[in-house]
Automatic annotation (TrEMBL):
It comes from Streptomyces alfalfae. Residues 1-71 form the HTH merR-type domain. Residues 77-104 form a coiled coil. It comes from the Bacteria. Pfam families: MerR_1 (PF13411), TipAS (PF07739). This is Transcriptional regulator. Keywords: Activator, Coiled coil, DNA-binding, Transcription, Transcription regulation.
Length: 269
């Protein structure tokens, strides 16, 4: 028995345009044509269509489905297992994202509310990139330190934020002065500023041992959004992010063994 494009479209739940696309791509060509030249699908064609729709539902791209059907060397089971792993990873990612959304809801419901004027008064030019905050939350979702930092931040009052940002502003001014004066990143002044930054994090958010501080500083040079939380773009200088990163690494080395050796290449030039 043969079926027209319209009939297949109706009971398979796909559009006629999709069936035409599958035909053009060589993925599913009808086995026959009517005397008038219209496409006619056989029972075997419908079985193939069912397989295609199954793979599509699992998120396989068309070129990969085509390879599965055309290449006898392709192992469909291995492809399915690989896709299963990807789906499990995606499920885990979505769960973490749901946790981030839940935390954001909690912050909105119980956190400190600031008017635009108060926000500028407290934070000045420092802005919080939502995409970066979300990625950071997901990246460190399983970290006890991240959970503690978020809990501390949620509990801060307006006055806490004012004092915190006042300290950060003073520290930033000193960092810019040290950099502009040409002090070496592994010199006493730069390392002392790095230590002050580490203690600032510990005082206001969560314990920040030197290894953690190094990881935070590495983000300064790999993600401009991270360094913008420390120095607003309008106040940044070329090479400043790498300078701050090197100072943090030097300070961490100083704490580790009394020396100042560090991996410069991690912070760039």
């Amino acid at each position: 028995m043969s079926y027209s494009v319209g009939q297949v479209s109706a009971f398979a739940g796909v559009t006629v345009r999709t069936l035409h696309h599958y035909d053009k791509a060589g993925l599913l060509s009808p086995s026959d044509r009517s005397p008038a030249g219209y496409r006619l699908y056989s029972e075997a064609d419908l079985v193939r269509l069912q397989q295609i729709l199954f793979y599509r539902e699992l998120g396989f791209p068309l070129d990969e489905i085509t390879a599965i059907f055309k290449d006898p060397q392709v192992n469909p089971l291995e492809r399915l297992r690989a896709r299963q792993r990807q789906l499990h990873e995606e499920i885990a990612r979505l769960r973490r994202l749901a946790e981030v959304a839940e935390r954001a809801i909690e912050v909105q419901m119980t956190g400190v509310t600031l008017t635009p004027q108060e926000r500028f008064e407290v934070f000045g030019e420092v802005t919080f990139d939502l995409s970066y905050a979300t990625e950071a939350e997901m990246k460190w979702a399983r970290s006890e330190g991240q959970r503690a930092a978020m809990a501390r931040a949620d509990a801060h009052t307006k006055e806490d934020w004012r004092q915190l940002m006042s300290e950060a502003t003073a520290w930033r001014a000193e960092l810019l002065a040290v950099y502009d004066e040409g002090e070496p990143s592994d010199g006493e002044r730069a390392m002392d500023l790095a230590e002050e930054h580490r203690l600032h994090i510990a005082r206001w958010f969560t314990s920040c041992p030197p290894d953690m501080h190094r990881r935070i500083a590495d983000d300064f040079v790999t993600d401009p959004r991270a360094f913008a939380l420390v120095v607003p773009p309008s106040q940044q200088r070329p090479g400043l992010a790498a300078y701050a990163c090197r100072a943090v690494h030097a300070n961490a080395a100083r704490h580790a063994d009394g020396g100042t050796d560090f991996e410069e290449d991690r912070c760039g030039s």
